[in-house]
Amino acid sequence: MAETGNHAAAHRQRQRAPVWLDATIVVSAAAVAVMLLAGWLVKVDCIGPHYDPFGISTGFNARMHRDYCYSDIQFLWPYRGISGHLFPYLHGGMHNGQLTGSTLEYPVGTGLFIWLTALGAHNDGQFLAISAACLAPFGLLTAGLLARLTGRRALIFAAAPAILFYGFLNWDLLAVAAFVAAVWCWWRGHPISAAALLGLGAVLKLYPGLAVLPLALHRLSKGDRKGAVKVLAAGVGTFVLFNLPFALANRPGWWATYAFQSNRAADITTNSIWYWGVPTLSTDQLNVLTPLLMVLTWVVALAVGWWRRDEAYPWVQVSGSMVCAFLVLNKVHSPQYVLWVLPFLALIQVRWGWWVAYWIFDTALFFGLDRWYYVIGTRGDDSLVKQLVIIGVWGRAATLALLYVVFLASPLALRSAQASGAPSSTPPAGSSTPSARTASRSGASTSRTTNAQ
Predict the structure, then answer these.
(1) Distance CA 107, CA 142 (A)
(2) Within 13 Å and on the Cβ side, how many CA atoms surround 441?
(3) Which residues, in sequence order, are bridge partners of residue 57?
(4) Longest C-alpha distance within the chain, in Å?
(5) How many Å apart are CA 169 and CA 74, to the nearest integer?
(6) What's the pLDDT tens digit per position in 331-373?
(7) Cβ neighbours of residue 165 under 8 Å, at least 6 residues apart?
(8) pLDDT attached to residue 63
(9) pTM for this structure?
(10) What are the phi and psi torsion angles at 222 (to 5°)?
(11) By C-alpha distance, which of 416, 404, 414 is closest to 443?
(12) Alpha carbon distance 194, 224 (integer Å)
């Protein structure tokens, strides 16, 4: 009789879970929609209403930093062959350190997205509007998947001010959605599909590709050697599949993306610790130093993950640490890169104070940087605003350096497949039995995480 009652209670719990989850998805989607709408309303201040013969909004240069409405999307409209609707990478290359023809400083997936969204535009305002309309669904998708994965923790992403600041600053929402979709596929027990999505993410922005090796090590830790090879093949193969046609058609144009980043100096526009800490280092010196330091920190993260493994390798945590190391040590730390970190703060069980600290320093940088650029362009320097930028740069870097360690030491905050209403009757890939999960140090646990939501 007691057993029958337990079965009935379990059945009622399974019936209720999807309802609770659907509400979480709705709330998360609504939150990210509000933040994106607010971000769009800010960007509108830089659009039109009058345009010059090149389709550039009149007064854009005067308004972009004064009104905090700058966007790389709008700024790049007259460059890179975008306004001329040239197919990307097939024309031009690098000449005297500058991109020529239809080459872009972004990987081919983002280049194709830029080309497609520009086809129906005749000025920078239309280009920004179409781009925003096409980017918004990726923000909604990311919020929805995070709600499926983590419940209320999805609001760490969906309600973040960074969505308002940077959702339409650049095209990073594409890669963020690809990474979170990869985690969702793995959670549903499809590591090969997850690896393919990570490869696709690297075609958009390179950072999701960092997670391919940790995911392969996860399969290896489960004793699945063939699975590990398949993960590597799927991730690398997807990246090669998208890049190879462009490399064959016009290698200089395809390679110009990476040559541009290599030639880029750590200057006032990069927000990096190198500009503010050791500005005397040359670009050539940084091109040796920064990759070396990044590889060392990645090796340490990979090794710590292998040492901490119990039931499975903590590939999400290791990937988060690798991303943190990249952001701290890279020559360039663009403002919108904060979007890369937000999903990790939701997926990994870290205290909310880390999100608050990161938000405070990033907000200081956002407002300080635009204001500093504005006063530099109008009446010279402003020491008070400059100090705000310095606080933002170093505060954000310090927070990321600490998160490098915190991520490695923390469990995942993923819900179980059963609690989420997923149809599978087996635990997600990388999970274990309830008793083993409770004792797990690796972070691939569920029983230790769901109470923290």
Answers:
(1) 21
(2) 9
(3) 51
(4) 82
(5) 9
(6) 999 999 999 999 999 999 999 899 999 999 999 999 999 999 9
(7) 39, 335, 336, 338, 362, 363, 366
(8) 92
(9) 0.88
(10) -90, 5
(11) 414
(12) 16
Task: Please write down the HEC assignment for all residues of the chain.
Answer: CHHHHHHHHHHHHHHHHHHHHHHHHHHHHHHHHHHHHHHHHHHHHHCCCCECCCCCECCHHHHCCCCCCCCHHHHCCCCCCCCCCCCCCCCCCEECCEECCCCCCCCHHHHHHHHHHHCCCCCHHHHHHHHHHHHHHHHHHHHHHHHHHHHHHHHHHHCCHHHHHHCCCCCHHHHHHHHHHHHHHHHCCCHHHHHHHHHHHHHHCCHHHHHHHHHHHHHHHCCCHHHHHHHHHHHHHHHHHHHHHHHHHCHHHHHHHHHHHHHCCCCCCCCCHHHHHCCCCCHHHHHHHHHHHHHHHHHHHHHHHHHHCCCCCCHHHHHHHHHHHHHHHCCCCCHHHHHHHHHHHHHECCCHHHHHHHHHHHHHHHHHHHHHHHHHHHCCCCHHHHHHHHHHHHHHHHHHHHHHHHHHHCCECCCCCCCCCCCCCCCCCCCCCHHHHHHCCCCCCCCCCHHHC
